[in-house]
Glycoside hydrolase family 5 domain-containing protein
Amino acid sequence: MKVVLACFVILGVQSIDGFLSVRNTSFYYNDEKVFLSGANIAWFDFARDFGSGAYNQVRPRFEYAIDEISNAGGNVIRVWVHTDGQWSPKWDQNGFATGEDTESLIQELGQLLDYAATKNVLVIFVLWNLDVTPQPMLHLYTQEDRLQSYLDRVLKPLVAGLKHKRALAAWDLVNEPMGSLSQWQEDPNPCYDTTHLQGTGAGWAGTTVYYQNILKLINWHADAIKSVDPKALVTTGEAGEFTTTNVCEKCRDHYTDECLIGAGGKPNGTIDFYALHSYTWEGRYTPSSPFKNQFNFYNKKKPIVVEEFSTTNSESHSPEVNYRHIYEGGYGGILDWQYNESGKWVDNKHDIFAGISSIRNLTSNGKIDIKL
């Protein structure tokens, strides 16, 4: 009996190790420290890549992109799912999620994950976006019953359907909340006060969402995910260090466990690592940018991934220098923006692959060549 129990324990440990995990300030896979190196494949058809058969139209392009990133030595991609909610999930006339396209989302995202696994590439799924005005889903920030309908009818089944996929790295809940923050929102609770953001450019999306509502949505999403898949990793991709760190005069970390739990009341609704985006302004990084500092500068107890950057919008203009700086600086990963080469501040594929290839064989800050 003891032998049988021991075998179950060993099998259980192996099954957990077969997924990306966080230990202190590093990522691990199969009990080995790993570094995430790759690129964003944010979308091919904005907000309409997945659900109700949409993936059939873009699947060859995603698979070819995964091939190229893998061949360059990358091990991770970042992909956007709902984005602004214009295509998925489906809503009724009162703004409740119907769940009618949940099975198609499970199938299509599963197909992407299965293919990525054959190429030893992990996938970070981004659910929502606040970088631009997301009209179809804004009600989720203020109407609890509508939010709960999405969690129950879409997100929880989605997590349940995908939690066994080895390529699933993490859930990124909201892209760049800073884009929809006021610079003048006063609040006695520093978690929700945004007056420190004056002069930072916050609020560029043209709409304003109260910070407590954003943190509550993140808290409820994270709790829902972990209630279904306790091993799942969760983050939120933020536009820089102003809202994620405490290292400068205008900086304040709004994504601490205390802020998130305080906003939403869910004890498990926290993030597992920080995902920072870093671009230059008028050709220069801020003094507190990851490209100006090493990981230890931030005094974090969780990993930091530089989830978006571009060499074309950097100081060095060298993909090799940028990738090596983040790798050697003790961070958890770096992802270029972005593979489809459309939009502002994007790199061309030559630079993306040059950066990824330049660190593919390094091991001092974690393996990049992983086997899923």
About this structure: DSSP finds eight helices and twelve strands in the chain. The longest helix spans residues 144-162. The CA atoms of residues 12 and 101 lie 33 Å apart. The mean pLDDT is 95.
